[in-house]
Amino acid sequence: MSAQSAIVLHKLLKRFNDFTAVNGIDLEIKKGEIFGLLGPNGAGKSTTINMILGLIKPTSGSITVEDIDMINKQELGKAHIGIVSQETLIEPELTAAQNIVLFGRLYHVSENKIDEKVDELLNLAELTDFKDKYAGTFSGGMQRRLAVVRALVHDPDIILLDEPTNGLDVQNRVKLWELLRHINETRNVTVLITTQYLEEADNLCNRIAIIDHGKIIALGTSSQLKQSIGKGNVIDISANKELIPHIEKLMKDMGLESAKGTGNKVMANIGTDPMKKINKLLGILEKNKIHIDGISMHEPTLDDVFLKLTGTSMRDAVETSSKNDRWLAGGRHGMM
Amino acid sequence: MSTLRDAYSLYIRELLILKKNFRSSIARSMIFPIVLILFLGNLGSSPRNTPVAIVNLAGNANAVQFMNLLESGTSGVNIVSITTQDSAMKLLANGDVLAVVVIPPNFGSSINSNVNVYIDSSSPIGSQSVEAQIQSVISSFNAHGSIQQIRGNSLSINYAFGASSSYKSFLIAGIVIMVAAFGSFYSGGMTLITDRQLGNLKAFFSAPISRTSILLSKVAYSVTQSFVNAMVALVVGLVLGGTIASGVAGLPYIIWYVLISATGFGGIATALASRVGKIEVYSIIGMAITMPLWFLSGAFLPTSTLPPIMYQVSVYNPMTYATGALRDVMLKGYLPLSTFVVTSAILIMFSIVTILISVILFKNADYK
Q: Distance (Å) from the C-alpha of residue B16 to the closest C-alpha of chain A?
C-alpha cells in the first residue's frame, strides 16, 4: 500500500456456499488511472465491486480505499466513492435535478453546494435542457450520463462503474467513454470500471485486469497484454470443428508453436514474414486435403489474450455464462 | 441525529414521487372504499322481500288477517304464492321461496291449530330472519306455531348486512382503519421491493448513510400514503351517507388512530419487504396477514358477536382497538378517556415493536 494507491485489494476472497465467486484477488489501483476489470459474466467482477462498496462482506482478505480500511470503517470510505451500477441507478420518478439533489444530501453535501453542483453536473452531462424533466423519460444514453454525473455530486476521489455501458448502442457508448475520460482528466478522479466489452477496456482503460473464474489472470496496459501473446499479427483459421485439432497440430509442426484451437477456430501468432508463412500453411493444408472455411489476419486483440490464457474466446464465454445466470454478479444469495 | 436527517432526505424523495403520482394515487385509493360502502353499506338491515309460499287450509278471516300482517309492517315477507302444500314444497325445494307457511284448518279458533313453517335451512342468514319474522306474527296471534326445517338447494336472498345508515357508519370506521393499516403494504413495503429490484437500494446502501435511515424513510412514507388513503376513504364514506356522531370534534381522534395504525402496520410491511425479494410472494404473504386481521378486527361485525375462538384472536389484534375506538367516535359520539389511553398505549407499543423488528431485519437484509 502506498499514498499512490486509490484502491488496494489483498487476498480478497468471497464464497457463496460452495461457490467461490472471487478467489483471492490481489490488486492495486493507482490514483488517477482508469482501470478496467475485464471478464465475462460471472467472472467475479460485480462481486468484487460489491465488496469494495461494502454491500457484500468478503469471506477473507482486505480492502483499502484511499488508505481507509473498508471492512471496519466502511462509512468513512464510502464518502470517497461515487457509484454507477449495472442497473440503471437513476430514479426515473424524479427529475434530473432532483436525482442529483437527493444524492447530494445522502452524501452530506451542503445545500448551497448542491445547488451549484446541479447546474455544473448537468452541464457536464449535456443535460442542462433536461434539468426539470423526469429521468424516466430519458433515453438510455442520457440516463447513464445522468447516473455518471450524479456519482460526482460529492466530489469523490474514485468512481466505480459496474458495466456502465451494458445495452447501450455504439454511439452512446463512445459518448460515455468521452465523458469518463473528461472526468478522469479534469477532476483527477480515479475510475474503476468493470466490463465484458473488449473494445471498452481497450479504448478507455489505462490498465486492465483480466478476470476469469474469480481470479486475475492477466494485468497490464492493453498493449502489454497484447504483446504478452507474442510479437506480430494473429491469424485465425476457421474450419469444421472436427478438423480443428488436426489443423492445430499441422500448424505447430510447421513452427507456429502458439497455435491454439477452440470451437471452429485455430489462432496463432504469425510473427515475421506473415505472407510467406500463410502460403506455406495453405500448401500444407492442401497437401493434407484439409478444407478450411476461411483465414484472416489481424492485430492481436484482448480476445486473443483471453483465448490464449483461458482456452476459450471471451465472446464465447459471454454467451455460455448467460446460461449460468444464477451465478451472475453474486446475486444468488438471499433472494426469497 | 444524522440518521434522522438522512431519513428525512429520503422521505423528501418519497414525497416528490407521491406528489408526481398524486392524482392517480387518490383515484386508486377511492375505489376500495366506494365499492365496499356502496355494496356492503347499502344492503338491508334484515332481509327484505323474503319470498314465502302460503298453504291456506283455513280460508277464514283469521287467515286473511294473518297473511296481511305477514306482508305488511316491518316483517318484509313477500308472499309469492298461495297454493297447495305439494306445489309449495316444490317451490321451497327449487329455492323459489325461502319458507312455506301452512295455515291449519280452524286457524285462530282452536288451541290445536298449529301453524307449520318449512324453512330453507341451507340459507342460514335468510332462514333465521324469516323464522324470526313469522314467529313474531304468529305470537301476535297467540296461535301455536311449530317450525320445521328442510334442506333446500338454492338461495334467493343473500343480504348479509343491514341497510340502516348506522350500519354504514359502523362499516366506515372499519374501512378507514383498514385502509390506514393496509395502505402501508402497498406503499412503503411494496416500494422497498421495487427499489431493490431497480437497484435504488444498492445506491442507498453504497452511500454513507445508515440502513436504519432508509427504513425509517419507508415507514414515514407508508404513514403518509396510508393517511392520505384513509382520509379519502373517510370522505368517500361521508359522501355516500355515513356520519360522524362527534362531528368535527372527533376529527383529531380519527387522525390519531389512522396515524398510529399506519405506523404499526408500516413496521410489519417493511419488515416483510426487507426479507421477501419478489412482489408476488410479498403480495401473497401480505394478503395472508391482512385479510384475517381485517375480519377479526370487528370491521364488519362487533367482535363480541364472533365465535369464542375468533374473539380470543381478535383480542390480540391491534386493529380491533383502533376500529373500536374510531367507532366510539363515529357512532357513539364520544370516546371515554380510559379507552383512549388504553387503546393508544396498545397501538404505540405495537408500533414500537414492529418498527424495531423491521429495523433489525432490514439491517441484515441483502441489497438485492
A: 7
